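An example makes the point: we let one protein speak, the chain in one-letter code, the fold tokenised, and here it is:
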Amino acid sequence: MENPNHKGNAAELAIAAEAANLGLSVLKPLTEHERYDLVLGIGERLLRVQCKWASMRGDVVKVNLGSSYHSPTRGYVRTTYGVEEVDAIAAYCHVLRKCYLLPIDRFAGKNAIHLRIAPARNNQRASLNWATAYEFPGAVAQLEERRHGMAEVRGSSPLSSTTDEDATRGVGMDRFYARLAHYVRRAEAGGEVVVTRWGRPVARLVPADLNPTVPAADA
């Protein structure tokens, strides 16, 4: 697939499908020429998301963000994305069949983002961005975790609209995976979460008993 427009369309559709599979709301702007392609509903927040096609270079997933154009008055103008324009960058790597979600406050102003899927050959460890840290399900959970922390500071209401009673009756696997941090906090606070698959309970998350009672040995 060489046509840039085809790549962009394929990436946007793959990202929208991944988000929908996680139970997120997926909205499309009606007007053109916005800096974002989609709006994703994560918890109670709407995120402006720019979608990108990611390429593979050895053990690195590369996401190009910068672009340039020629202005008659300013010459060549280079542009990238800022926090005032989008809330996140979503990238689709066709080779790996994976989607990544990158918060813009981590990568604002950069011309490209490199995500490693294997250690560097020179054993470099500092300043590396690991692809697994930004894969869609985990990245969504991280965004919810960060937002929950901000809500606690502001004294806002809890992240999820799901009640304790709903969680006790059952939470689908996709929703549980996407909101893992939220449900772990619920169990930590003494609640219980029943995980279902195709409507059938398959697992139960409860508070950990860190000091279990050990039966006394028979004399």
Confidence is low (pLDDT under 50) at residues 149-163. Residues 4-136 form a domain with the Trna Endonuclease; Chain: A, domain 1 fold (CATH 3.40.1350.10).
